[in-house]
Design a protein that fits this description.
This protein is an alpha/beta fold and about 260 residues long. The protein contains eight helices and eleven strands. Bound molecules: 2-amino-2-deoxy-6-O-phosphono-alpha-D-glucopyranose.
């Protein structure tokens, strides 16, 4: 696990996009898992800019979203399907046949979960999963208490997560209580992980995830067990860590450390 600290959210976004663009450029076919939330927005803007200048071909990328709400129409402004279209897919040249999101409106949700896990396997598995982290230590929608080998399934959201995500909804009571999420096991099966966190509100969760015990109480702590993970934090998100993270300059310049752990 390589933990890198930069100054602020803009630098988190720029470095994440730089590493992801390099990863995509160096693979003929690449299978990504991508997150939603406020944290990755800057990274998506940077990726769109790189694609528009011709420096990045996003058409080769197969993308699986980490999660989706259950029961929210896919054209609802806060569905993760809408989020991905608005912030990424409609702004760059993707191959629409390679974009996947769990079907939170399926009549048979159990079958929809199995089908999603199956599609990831058919695509050859995830090459890199980009993750945010919830203030309670969740990744995707894997809430505290979930199994660290869990696979794609329907979960009930914690009160904390519903409250945190209510800021995106006009009517806070409209936040769904359930979601389909990749499991911690699905995420751990990815060949590489890249976690991003920004802001003081994430400091305690980041410290628990990176320096606490690996425990279901903090699903993000599973990242410690991954052989090829990069974590990019801004100063505030890194503020509760006791082990000093790398600076971006150290990370990029160290001749003895692979610049991209996951290559
Ligand atoms: C949601 C998503 C997570 C994301 C988290 C943090 O709950 N399901 O994948 O990491 O929010 O979001 P933010 O980046 O807005 O803090």
């Amino acid at each position: 696990m390589r933990v890198i600290r930069v100054t602020d959210h803009a630098e988190v976004s720029a470095l994440a996009a730089e590493l992801l663009a390099k990863f995509i450029a160096e693979h003929d076919e690449v299978v990504l898992a991508l997150p939603t939330g406020g944290t990755p927005l800057g990274m998506y803007n940077e990726l769109v800019t790189l694609a528009r200048t011709g420096a990045l071909d996003l058409g080769r990328a197969t993308v699986f979203n980490l999660d989706e709400y259950v029961g929210l129409p896919s054209d609802h402004s806060q569905s993760y399907a809408s989020y991905m279209r608005r912030h990424l897919y409609d702004r760059a040249e993707f191959d629409p046949t390679k974009l996947h999101i769990p079907d939170g409106n399926a009549e048979d949700l159990v079958a929809a979960c199995a089908s999603y896990e199956g599609r990831i396997a058919e695509a050859g598995g995830l090459d890199i999963a980009v993750l945010g982290i919830g203030a309670n230590g969740h990744i995707a929608f894997n809430e505290p208490g979930c199994g660290l080998n869990s696979r794609v399934r329907v979960v009930r959201l914690s009160d904390r997560t519903v409250l945190d995500n209510a800021r995106f909804f006009d009517d806070p009571r409209a936040v769904p209580r359930h979601a389909i999420t990749m499991g911690v096991g699905t995420i751990r099966s990815s060949r590489a992980l890249m976690m991003l966190a920004s802001g003081e509100g994430k400091a305690a969760a980041v410290a628990a995830a990176l320096e606490g015990p690996v425990t279901t109480r903090c699903p993000a702590s599973a990242i410690q067990l991954h052989p090829s993970a990069v974590v990019i934090l801004d100063e505030e998100a890194a503020s509760a860590l006791r082990v000093r993270p790398w600076s971006k300059e150290e990370f990029l310049a160290d001749p003895h450390a692979p610049q991209f752990l996951f290559l």
